[in-house]
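Sequence, C-alpha cells reproduced for reference:
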Amino acid sequence: MSKVVSFFLFFALLIFGFYLAQHKPLWNDEIYSQVGSIQGQSYFDMLSGNIEEGSNSPLFYFIQKTICLITQQKLSFSGASNWYIIDKKLQALLRVASNVFMALAITLIFYFFTHYYSWKAGLYAFLVTLSSPMIWRYWVEARPYALWICLTVIQLVLFFTLIKNKDKRASLWKWFILTHILMAFTAVFSLAQMVILSMILWWFGRQKKWMLPSKLYWIGTVLAIAICLFYYTQAPKYNFWFDQKNPPLKLLTDCFPIEQIVICGIYGIFFIFFRKGNVAFREEGKYGLTALVLTSLAAGALMGIFIIKAVEYPNGFAVVSRYFLFLTPISIMVTTLFSVHLMRLFKNNFWMTINLSVVLSGLLIVRFMKTYLTIYELAIYWK
C-alpha cells in the first residue's frame, strides 16, 4: 500500500512543481548556467570539467543539455537586462529535471518512513521535509541543487536500510557505491558526506561483524573520491566574502533549522540516559547521531575555510547557504528518525507522550511559519 501511495504522491509533487516553476521567473544564475555551461559547451567539455563556474561537476549539465536538445529550447543572455526572464513555457521545461529530482527525494523520504516505521511517521517526515526552507528555494531551480538533494536522500535511505535490513546488504552495497559515484559527478562538496557515511558503515560493520563490503566497494569509494578531487582541481578558483545579512551561523541554520537542532538535542539527552532500555532506540540512534555529528563537523570545517579565506566585499562572490546543502537531507532524516524513537520510547507513558507531541508539533508549526515568511519575503515565487 505504501508503494501505491508513494507513486501517486510523486506525481502530485511533480504537478505541484510545474506550478511552482511557472510562478518563478528564470533568474541570472540559471540563465548564466544555461547559456554558458550548457548551450555553450560540448559533452566532452562538461566531462573534462571545462565549465566556467564553480560548480563544474558535469552530471546535471549532461542531463540538462540532453533535455534541451530533445525539447529544442535555447536561451539568450544579453546581460543585466535579463536578470529575470518571464516565460512560463521555458520556466517549466528548463526545470523538468530539477522538479523530477526534488519530487523523487520527497517521495523517497515519505516511503522510507512509511515502509519501515508507520503511516504517521511517513506523514511527519513529509511535513518536516516541506518545512525545510532549502527545499522550497531549490525545488525548481535549473541548477544542480535538486539533483544533489535527491542523491543525498538516496544515500541516506540506503545507509539506514543497510543498518536495518540484514538480508539485502549484499545488493545494497552496490547501490550505495553507485550513488556515491553519481554524487561525485554532481557536486564536489559531496566528498565529505561520502567519506563519512562509508567510514561509519565500515567501522560499525566491523564491530557488529556484518558482512563487510568487498574490494570492489573500496575501489568504487576511492574512484568516487578521485572524481570529486579531479573536478575540484579543474574548477575556477574564486574569492568569497560574507554578506552582513547572512553571517556564518545563519547560512548553516538555513540548511539545518534551529527547530530541528532542538529536536536532535532533545534526542541526544534522552539517548544518554535511556539508551540501555531500548535496543532500536540505542542502535539506530547511534548511527544517526554519529552521521549527524560528523556531517555537522564537516560543514563547520567548510565554513571555517570560508571564514579564514574570506576577502572584503566586493572582491569575488558571497558565501551562500547552498554550499552547505548536504545538511538539509540529513537534518530531515535524523529529525524524523529521532522524533519517532522518542515517541516510541515513551509510548506507555501518557503524560510524556502528550508533552512530546506538543513540543514536536509546536516546533514543526513554528518552522512552517518561518519558512513561509522567508519564501514570501524573498519573493521567490512571484509571477
